[in-house]
């Protein structure tokens, strides 16, 4: 039975030391590493190791930057086992705790014999093609998969590591038909392509934008690409609760026969906007970061609705004809003022006071025409 697991630099886990009992339940929010623990254990115990490919993205994010050629990062996964009869010879101290016990150690580390090959390179990614992967008992004996006293079965629909069959097929095909040197050259070239791809400003802008969206919407960054097919699906999930049909708000306000424009706003529009500000983070995402989705025109749509509303108010207020650019400017300014309140939100009282001031300036301006 597994009694302990230590994980270092694997995916979303920088370091974890977890004790196990006979029956275990792993509980936690999305994106905190539950599936990663299972993947780490299965990897160390040899489940589906054939065709496994080491990539920089299997290392913890903290290892990606400021790479030191003299001390490149390693992945270590140690599974501590209860004593198994007949396997006493495999006990040892080849583990982090330096404790005499039975267990298996998985390690992915840089092969120092290749140090001269990377000396002239400017490393921007972990050079996985120069890494070795080993599984050994704590006695330092190599684990022989078919002689293990156990088999491993993992049922985990969230795992992205062991269920990508096409990737495994291609990896096995390349390993079988290319020499070690050809494989290394291919991986070095691939690393260069990744560097160029990640260095592309448009790509980095998209990644930065999605990261900001996840942060603002309280969605773990790690789950964006796992649970959302593309940016538009992500936006649908984030902003679905923030849409208010402003046309109906304006229609209700315009249907009031009595009162000035500012009085009608106080009676109808103010409450709607305060409800909207409760979802201010999602409002900002919808208005500022929706490029490339079906919500791209959300801000312009709001401005157009506001412009039409102002035109109705002006007709009620004055018989004079005004250039449509005037109403467009007024609508744009009011919309941007609303967004500025959302962006710099301090408290509900502060937002109400600011909204009243902006509305007063806006409506008094309209009423003066």
Q: Could you please describe the fold and organization of this structure?
A:
- This protein is of the alpha+beta class.
- Helix content is 47%, strand content 11%.
- It has helices at 34-44, 115-119, 165-177, 180-199, 201-216, 224-227, 231-239, 246-255, 261-277, 280-288, 298-317, 324-343, 348-367; strands at residues 2-10, 13-19, 75-81, 102-110, 131-137.
- Strands 2-1-3-4-5 form a five-stranded antiparallel β-sheet, covered by helices on one side.
- Helix 8 runs antiparallel to helix 9 and helix 11 (298-317) packs across helix 12 (324-343).
- The longest helix is centred in the middle third of the chain and has 20 residues, at 180-199.
- Residues 157-164 have low confidence and may be disordered.
Features:
369 residues; alpha+beta; 5 strands; 47% helix; elongated
Q: Catalogue the unreliable spans.
A: 157-164
Give me the secondary-structure category: alpha+beta
Sheet with the most strands, sense and barrel status: 5 strands, antiparallel
Helix/strand order? EEHEEHEHHHHHHHHHHH
Distance between the termini: 82 Å
Shape: elongated
Oligomer: single chain
Residues in β-strands, percent: 5-15%
> What's the count of strands?
5
Helix tally equals: 13
Radius of gyration: 30 Å
* Helical percentage: 40-55%
């Amino acid at each position: 039975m597994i009694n302990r697991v230590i994980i270092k630099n694997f995916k979303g886990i920088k370091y974890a030391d977890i004790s196990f009992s006979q029956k275990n339940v792993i509980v936690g929010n999305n994106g905190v590493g539950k599936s990663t623990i299972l993947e780490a254990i299965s990897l160390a115990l040899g489940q589906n190791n054939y065709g496994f490919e080491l990539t920089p993205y299997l290392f913890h994010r903290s290892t990606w930057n400021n790479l030191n050629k003299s001390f490149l990062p390693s992945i270590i996964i140690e599974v501590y086992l209860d004593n198994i009869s007949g396997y006493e010879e495999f006990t040892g101290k080849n583990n982090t705790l330096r404790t005499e016990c039975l267990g298996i150690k998985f390690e992915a580390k840089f092969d120092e014999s290749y140090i001269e090959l990377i000396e002239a390179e400017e490393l921007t990614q972990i050079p996985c093609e120069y890494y070795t992967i080993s599984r050994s008992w704590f006695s330092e004996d190599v684990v022989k998969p078919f002689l293990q006293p156990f088999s491993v079965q993992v049922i985990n629909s969230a795992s992205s590591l062991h269920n990508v069959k096409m990737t495994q097929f291609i990896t096995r095909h390349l390993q079988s038909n290319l020499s070690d040197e050809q494989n290394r050259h291919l991986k070095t070239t691939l690393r260069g392509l990744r560097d160029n791809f990640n260095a592309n400003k448009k790509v980095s802008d998209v990644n930065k934008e999605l990261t900001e969206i996840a942060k603002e919407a309280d969605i773990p960054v790690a789950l964006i690409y796992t649970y959302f097919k593309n940016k538009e699906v992500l936006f649908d999930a984030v902003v679905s609760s923030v849409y208010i049909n402003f046309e109906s708000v304006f229609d209700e306000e315009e249907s009031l026969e009595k009162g000035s424009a500012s009085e009608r706003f106080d009676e109808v529009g103010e409450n709607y906007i305060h409800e909207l500000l409760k979802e201010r983070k999602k409002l900002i995402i919808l208005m500022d970061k929706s490029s490339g989705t079906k919500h791209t025109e959300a801000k312009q749509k709001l401005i157009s609705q506001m412009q039409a509303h102002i035109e109705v108010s002006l007709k009620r207020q004055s018989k004079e004809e005004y250039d449509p650019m005037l109403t467009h400017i007024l609508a744009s300014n009011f919309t941007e003022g609303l967004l500025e309140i959302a962006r710099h939100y301090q408290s509900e009282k502060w937002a109400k006071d600011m909204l009243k001031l902006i509305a007063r300036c806006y409506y008094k301006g309209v009423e003066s025409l």
